[in-house]
Amino acid sequence: MKHKHCSLYSLKHLVSIYLTIQISISISPLVSTSMASMVERCTLPLGPEDSLLVSNLKGSRYASYNIETLRIPASTIKLLTSLVAIRLLGSNYRFKTDFFLDKSDNLIMKGYGDPLLVSEVLSDMALKLSKKIKQINHLVVDDSFFERPILIPGKTNSPNPYDAPIGAVSANFNTVFFKMTREGDLVSAEPQTPLLPFARQKILAQGWTGGRYTLSHEVQDPPRYAGELMAYFLKKGGVKMRGEVKVGLVQGRAIALLTYLSPFTLEEVIAKMLNFSNNFMANQLLVHMGGFKLGPPATLSKGLKVVRAYAIGRLGIKRFRLVEGSGISRKNKISALEMFKILHEFFPFRRLLRRDGTMLSKSGTLRGIQTLAGYLECQSPDSPLVFVIFTVGEGNKLEKVKRCLIRVSESSEGLH
After folding, report:
1. Cys bridge to 336: 15, 234, 371, 388, which one at CB 3.0-4.6 A?
2. In sequence order, which residues have a C-beta less than 8 Å from that of residue 362 and are 6 or more positions away?
3. Over residues 244-256, mean pLDDT
């Protein structure tokens, strides 16, 4: 038994030495040896299916482990979607919604994929429209800027908010937040959003008693719901409506009435999308970029073409696979080395990321996958450091590596 115990110890010792050699070989001679040694300790929880890269912005590495192996990035791929959106559309870009009036006094609302078409925005739209019109026939919602339907790889028809369908006219992330009172009545859980008969009927049919209900993938449900909300706010603002809400197209002779610009800049949209890791918003951005750059209808394939072209042509990313822009699909693949290139270019916009002490980062989680990528502010002349952590399997090894890196960044020992 004693001999067997020693053999097991020796095996563990050899594996430890092997991992240390793997990491140490890749350390750049241009970085602080003492700091590299401190960072090296952070690799101890990692296994052969994991990846770690810690580097300065110039590319000199403090730690490098399996950095060329393709991994599932999960939501860290939102960094690429965000970066391309900023570079293509501009930081101050604002989504628009156009309104037209036809000869039959129908008000037509045409959207282009605004990810933050929330109740407060719809209410403001209605207020501005009420100063131009006092009566309409039908309210027609035109969502033709996006192809319908758009099926996102990795999404299902579940009622979970992260599976919400995308579309050119989508209100409140295509979800309805509601609750049940003690008396058994369904009411809105948001003071700014009414629980409309259209949504109530959908909820009752599913037998829900509270939570955030996701609109179905029936192509007319999202634009219809947005139209019903718009009609509510128009009536509240004093605009009389004789007809009903319909889904249709802008006809040739319709007169332009109002172009409404979102109160949110693109940077504000992206900050919210990254902070809440909102899959709906990420793919709204991706598909919108396709229509913006390559013309309508905006499609998933056009959006992917735009992002891939930027990744290859501007960032020099050679090996990766992108099938959607949020990270919900396990078919997305990228290496830690290529993710570093994204982070290098994203550096001017790092303030959009969530802060945890000295760390600015974007996390990602799928079943059996945990990822983290971002920047470490430290007392080193190389500050900030760029890091990428891709881990596979259950447990808290990513959290251990993260906390270790934060401790390194906060330490003054050997950083100069």
Report:
1. 388
2. 75, 76, 78, 79, 274, 277, 353, 354, 372, 373, 374
3. 94
pTM as predicted? 0.89
* Strand duo 139-142 + 107-111: pairing: parallel
User: Exposed/middle/buried for 322, CB within 10 Å: 0-12, 13-18, 19+?
Assistant: buried
For 96-264, CATH gives 3.50.80.20
Among the listed residues 62, 57, 68, 24, the one whose alpha carbon sits nearest the alpha carbon of residue 375: 57
Does residue 380 surpass a pLDDT of 80? no
| Interval 193-219 mean pLDDT | 81
The CATH code of the domain at 26-86+292-410 is 3.40.710.10
Cα torsion angle, 380, 386, 391, 394, sign: positive
Closest C-alpha to 260, from 85, 121, 166: 121
Q: Is 139 helix (H, G, I), strand (E, B) or coil?
A: strand
Q: Is the pLDDT at 400 greater than 80, yes or no?
A: yes
Q: In degrees to the nearest 10, what's the CA dihedral of 226, 228, 234, 237?
A: -100
